[in-house]
Amino acid sequence: MSEGFETSNKPRRSVSFQEMNVKQFEESGFGGLRSLMMRDDIGQLVIGARGKVLTLSLDDITKKTSEAKWSVSSADKALCQMKGKDMKDCDNFIRTLHTMKDGKMLVCGTNAFNPACDHVIFKNGKLSLEGKKQVGKGKVPFDPYERFASLMDGNTLYSAVSSNFLGTEVLFQRHGLNPLKTEMKRSWFNEPTMISISLVETSKNSDSGEDDNVFLFFTESAVEERHDNIRVSRIARVCKSDLGGERTLQKRWTSFLKARLDCQFGDGGLPTLVQDVFLLRDLNNESVFYATLTSGSESSGGCSKSAVCAYKLSDITQVFSGRFLTERESGRWDTYTGEEPFPHPGSCINDEMRANGVTTSLDLSDKTLLFVKNHPLMEGVVTPMTGKPLLVQTGTRFSKIIVDQVTSLDGRQHQVMLIGTDSGWLQKAVRFDGEDVHVIEELQLFRTPQPVDFLQLASKTGQLYSGTSNIAVQVDVRDCSRYTSCNDCLLSRDPYCGWDKIRGQCASVVGASTGSM
Predict the structure, then answer these.
(1) CA distances from 209 to 153, 205, 240, 320, 469 (A)
(2) What is the pTM for the complete model shown?
(3) Whose CA, among 30, 310, 375, 502, lies 20 to 30 Å from 356?
């Protein structure tokens, strides 16, 4: 990647914390922020912190509306310390917040290294715990700092998390009526770090009647590499309708496949590791995953690089329809050249399979299931849709990403990427003319450098909600008042903004009449 490409993507304008209209929530004793969820339907930002869940008004997060405490008993804290854990970590860090179909919220916490879940109800402006504690093992980590991923689909929870005290048994699970999990095999997971889970409703755009897919993004040590401990980025796929096998792979995924996720921008062969993923659904009938990736260790300082890469669902599907890698007796991994069973191992149920009598995964033969069990890794590599990163920066570590689809005054569609960094800045990057990306602005979200751990965007209002360990903030990404002249407003190339001829100021184009702008 040339230096020119990187230099052209330096932020055009940097706006310090003092120059911005940042609304922030910070109170005495507030800390350990571990989860954040936006609830448009009740107008609340729900926050999971150390020993409590609280709600803030979406209109103005400086206004706390309610709080429900969920602390740990002295006996549980003492037991946690006896097991060798630090006293400050022996608390209940709320790490999972999900909305159920009936409006209740599933809340799971570390509970002094003994994970537990409960339901929270928001009624008449007040939060209350239901008080029906459930086992949280496998749904949320034991450790308050461990990375994991979870997704709620209706009332069905998907999670990718370690399921034991030591953090050595990592599983990708579906909880509920038809629980499934991954095999405890090194070829399925090898010291993984979980990043993100996404559900894609493939049946909407598929002519084959294929069932919906669930995707998992993670990093792990590559079993196929001859040298140990080479970390790589992965994407794994399972089928939403998977019921496990009849005999082989009982209560296990019969559709678990994984592939390497590529995004080449680092120097000297350093691995590029995925940090966060955002799914932009049905972009011209093509869902696209936008991912932030980093190269170089945190200790490498200015030598580290970050990038944003985009991946088309159709390209991902093609890789999972391709050939497999197989492990030889020597330990080497090569392309599998033998006969593959029908249907293609790991496939989601489609019309062709139904016509051949395979209506659920319980109808799959033991031969097919044994193949899946022993060949989870695909030969093909998922590559970026443009063949290269959309954006590369040196000396910056990207963390979170959200992508907003914006229609500008001329009627054209633009993708605005809102990218959080480990130093507490938000970069606003715009994709022009299909491939060209420019960082038009960077905003300092926190007064002191802290990593951006959360990003949530209210697309209707343009309000962005973010947070780090001890503070939550709210900013308007459509605030155009910083552009003080017509030239400044137009040259910014900000799709959210236009020059209001009547009022003589730069203003948001969302909902504005084109005649005055």
Answers:
(1) 20, 9, 13, 17, 44
(2) 0.94
(3) 375
| Residue 343 belongs to domain spanning | 182-396
Q: What is the CATH number of the domain that holds 192?
A: 2.130.10.10
Helix or strand holding residue 314 (H, E): helix 313-320
Tokens standing for residue 337 = 């050249």
Q: Are residues 368 and 302 in the same domain?
A: yes
Q: Which of 173, 181, 191, 179 is nearest to 234 (CA)?
A: 191
- Residue 172 bridge partners (DSSP): 160
> CA–CA separation, 461 vs 121, rounded Å?
25
Q: CA 142, 145, 148, 149 torsion: positive or negative?
A: positive
| Total structural domains within the chain | 2
pLDDT tens digits, 232-249: 999 999 999 999 999 999
pLDDT of residue 299: 47
User: What are the Cα distances from residue 226, in Å, to 191, 220, 297, 414?
Assistant: 16, 14, 21, 43
pLDDT band of residue 300 (cuts 50, 70, 90) is very low
The backbone region for 45, taken as left when phi is positive above 0, alpha when psi lies in -120 to 50, beta otherwise, is: beta
